[in-house]
Design the sequence.
C-alpha cells in the first residue's frame, strides 16, 4: 500500500466562487453584516448555485485522480465525513463529464454510485454488488461512518480521503475497505489536506497520535510478545530436560 499526502496550498478568498461569477463576491460581502449572519451565509450557497470544479480545489484534484484511475482500468473510493460533500461531488462529476466529453479527453462518462447513512440494507447490498461486478461504477462515494466499516471493496485500488476527523482509527478503517485480505493489486491512498487551515492542524495532531500509538502500544506489545515467546521456549526446554531425567530413572 502506498499513502500519498497531497497538501493543497491556495488562497481560499481568491479561488472561492471563480466557477460562478458573482457568487464569490456575494459570499465575501456577506461579512459586512453581523458575524452570525456571515457564517450562516457561508453554509447556505445561493439558490441558483451550480457546482463548479473551480470552487473546490480538493474536488478538482479528486476528480482528476478518478479520471486517471479510470483510464488505467482501476476503480476508486471517495470518502468524506459530510454527505453534503458527497452531493457536491456528484455535481462536480457531472460537470467534468460534460467538459471532458466535449474536448474528447474521456472515452465515456465517469460512472459513480453512492453509499451513506440514508441507504437501506437492501440498497447497501445492491450498491456493493453492483460496484464489485465487472461492469461496476468507476468510483464509489462513501460517508466515512456508513462506509468505513464492515464491507469488502477489494475491486477498488484507489482510496481518496477528502477530509478526516480527529480519530486515526476511522481513516484506517476506511483504507481497510480496499487494502485487506483478498486484495491482489497495489492500493494507493490519497489524503487531501489544505495547508495552514484547521484541517491541516487536525492532520498534524492525527500524525502525532499515530506516532504515539506506534511508540507506546505497538512496540510495547512486540516486546511483551517477544518476552512471552522466550518464557514459553524456556518452559519447553525445561519440560524436555525433565522428560529426559525421568526416562533415566529406573522404574
Sequence:
Amino acid at each position: 500500500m502506498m499513502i500519498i499526502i497531497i497538501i493543497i496550498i491556495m488562497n481560499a478568498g481568491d479561488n472561492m466562487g471563480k466557477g460562478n461569477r458573482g457568487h464569490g463576491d456575494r459570499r465575501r460581502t456577506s461579512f459586512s453584516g453581523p458575524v452570525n449572519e456571515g457564517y450562516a451565509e457561508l453554509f447556505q450557497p445561493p439558490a441558483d448555485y451550480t457546482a463548479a470544479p473551480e470552487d473546490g480545489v480538493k474536488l478538482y484534484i479528486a476528480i482528476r485522480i478518478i479520471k486517471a484511475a479510470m483510464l488505467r482500468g482501476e476503480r476508486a473510493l471517495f470518502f468524506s465525513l459530510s454527505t453534503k460533500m458527497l452531493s457536491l461531488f456528484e455535481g462536480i462529476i457531472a460537470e467534468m463529464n460534460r467538459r471532458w466529453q466535449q474536448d474528447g479527453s474521456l472515452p465515456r462518462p465517469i460512472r459513480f454510485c453512492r453509499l451513506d447513512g440514508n441507504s437501506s440494507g437492501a440498497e447497501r447490498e445492491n450498491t456493493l454488488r453492483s460496484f464489485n461486478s465487472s461492469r461496476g461504477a468507476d468510483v464509489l462515494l462513501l460517508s466515512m461512518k456508513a462506509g468505513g466499516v464492515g464491507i469488502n471493496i477489494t475491486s477498488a485500488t484507489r482510496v481518496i480521503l477528502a477530509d478526516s476527523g480527529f480519530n486515526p482509527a476511522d481513516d484506517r478503517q476506511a483504507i481497510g475497505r480496499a487494502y485487506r485480505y483478498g486484495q491482489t493489486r497495489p492500493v494507493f491512498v490519497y489524503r487531501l489536506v489544505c495547508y495552514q487551515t484547521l484541517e491541516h492542524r487536525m492532520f498534524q495532531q492525527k500524525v502525532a497520535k499515530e506516532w504515539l500509538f506506534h511508540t507506546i502500544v505497538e512496540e510495547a506489545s512486540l516486546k511483551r510478545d517477544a518476552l512471552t515467546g522466550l518464557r514459553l521456549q524456556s518452559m519447553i526446554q525445561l519440560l524436555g530436560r525433565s522428560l529426559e531425567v525421568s526416562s533415566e530413572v529406573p522404574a
In short: The two ends are 62 Å apart (CA to CA). Residues 11-38 have pLDDT under 50 and may be disordered.
